[in-house]
Design a protein that fits this description.
The chain is mostly helical. It has one domain. It has 15 helices and no strands. The longest helix is centred in the first third of the chain and has 33 residues.
């Protein structure tokens, strides 16, 4: 396929993401298929666009949520969030030692699994002094599992009969990246979406204490601590929609546009997963990521079904 045809197909597929024919999980699958069989002709542009489009989509979704319900969901998931972060980081450290994985690579994968995937890896990587190859390997591992989770979790949730609340909490804890958490939850239902988004963004704020911990461990580090400011805008959006309910029609359009933006974001994320990315990971590193993911998925699912 020539570059011209690749570009035309790229824009056709992206345009379809704005229609009702492409759901969030399907958009990711289509993006992955395009990357594997054709190759993304706009790889760098897609990567840059995702960083901003995802944040815009998250803020837009805030206009469709009730602030008080979100605070309640966040409080109920707080203790669960803290305990699972500590557990994943500890288990990741042990697995890294057992599998004899480079400590920096192991730490990046553990951080990505514990908090919010690529965002956490991007935040702590400069502090640890990780090389570009180590960062790429960690991102490739987390991203591959993240894509699988988005495609599998809704089906598993329906199969075992999880409620909207249970699925929202489970996806926020066990799926790596915020984009896939929101994508999976939006496919499950509105309540699941609110719970998942609130809990996951609350979890994302733990990037800050994780970064501080990383600085303490790496005393000679010159890396800066990344603060996810867009979460504050998400909170503002929820407050506005809750305090000014007379503009629900406007909020409805904003939320609709945000969901479409999220679908496009997932398509663009999918186009970044190539066979080369998967091959570069390596067996031991990928095994660590898989074991961590399975552990947190099963443990959180059992806990949620018993308690919630």
């Amino acid at each position: 396929m020539t570059t011209t045809y690749k570009k035309i197909l790229f824009f056709i597929l992206m345009a379809l993401c704005f229609t009702s024919y492409i759901s969030a999980p399907l958009a990711l699958a289509v993006g992955i298929a395009f990357a594997v069989f054709a190759g993304n002709p706009y790889a760098q542009e897609s990567s840059k666009t995702v960083k901003y489009l995802l944040k815009i989509a998250i803020v837009g979704l805030g206009f469709g949520m009730n602030f008080y319900n979100a605070v309640k969901a966040g409080k109920e998931g707080l203790l669960f969030t803290i305990s699972t972060i500590v557990l994943v980081l500890s288990l990741g450290y042990l697995l890294g030692k057992i599998l004899k994985i480079n400590p920096k690579t192991s730490y990046l994968i553990s951080s990505g699994t514990a908090i919010c995937g690529g965002s956490a890896i991007a935040a702590v990587a400069p502090i640890t002094g990780a090389s570009q190859k180590q960062i790429s390997v960690a991102l490739g591992t987390v991203f591959t599992l993240n894509a699988l989770a988005l495609l599998l979790f809704p089906a598993i949730g329906h199969f075992i009969g999880l409620t909207q609340y249970q699925f929202g909490l489970w996806s926020a804890i066990a799926i790596h990246d915020t984009s896939s958490v929101v994508g999976a939850a939006s496919a499950y239902g509105d309540e699941a979406l609110q719970v998942a988004t609130t809990v996951k963004l609350g979890r994302a704020l733990w990037i800050i204490p994780l970064s501080l911990l990383t600085v303490a461990i790496n005393k000679n580090s010159t890396g800066k601590i990344a603060i996810p400011y867009f979460i504050l805008l998400f909170i503002v959006a929820m407050i506005v929609s809750t305090m000014l309910p007379q503009y629900q029609d406007v909020y409805g359009w904003i939320t609709f546009a945000a969901k479409k933006a999220l679908t496009v974001t997932l398509f663009l994320i999918g186009t970044g997963l190539s066979l080369d990315t998967i091959k570069a990971v390596g067996f031991k590193v990928f095994l660590q990521g898989v074991l961590l993911w399975i552990a947190i998925s099963i443990l959180s699912l059992v806990t949620i079904t018993l308690i919630y």
